[in-house]
Structures are given as structure tokens and as C-alpha cells.
Design brief:
The protein is of the alpha+beta class. It is 25% helix and 30% strand. It starts with a helix and ends in a 6-residue tail after the last strand.
Length: 81
């Protein structure tokens, strides 16, 4: 959320689009729907760090914005990953 606010405010620049935000309960609904269709879900996570330009934060503040991207691979069980 903090990274989203910093990018939207123009404090830091990012060429990557921001991911959609979802509620935690949406994951359970997704898993249930995939199971009904006979599909499996594999999940990967990639940390993201972006520098914040000097002069935009109070002195002594951590000069980087931290984020995390979540990647989903939906496929049939036993298929090549």
C-alpha cells in the first residue's frame, strides 16, 4: 500500500504497472473454484525495492520503498511447471 501511495503521489517512478489489490477471502474462493474445475495453483513471490529520491523524505528515513509481487500459475495437476 505504501509503495502504491508513493508512486501515485509521484514521489517515485515505476515503469511497471501496479498490481490489483484483493481481499484475503478472495484467495479461498479462487482455490475452491479451481478445485471444482480440476485445476491446480502454484504461487511465486518476487520482492521489489525502489529507491526514493533524496529530499522527499525526512532525514534518516529508509530511502527505499519495498513491495512484493505475487505470481499465480494455474494448470492441470501433474502438468509440466
Amino acid at each position: 500500500m505504501r509503495m502504491r501511495k508513493l508512486i501515485e503521489a509521484g514521489v517515485i517512478e515505476s515503469s511497471e504497472p501496479l498490481p490489483s489489490l484483493v481481499y484475503g477471502g478472495d484467495a479461498q474462493q479462487l482455490l475452491g473454484s479451481l478445485a471444482e474445475l480440476g485445476l491446480a495453483l502454484w504461487v511465486g513471490s518476487m520482492p521489489l525495492i525502489a529507491p526514493i529520491p533524496e529530499g522527499t523524505l525526512p532525514e534518516g528515513a529508509f530511502p527505499y520503498a519495498l513491495g512484493n509481487s505475487l505470481f499465480l500459475d494455474i494448470d492441470f495437476p501433474g502438468s509440466e511447471q
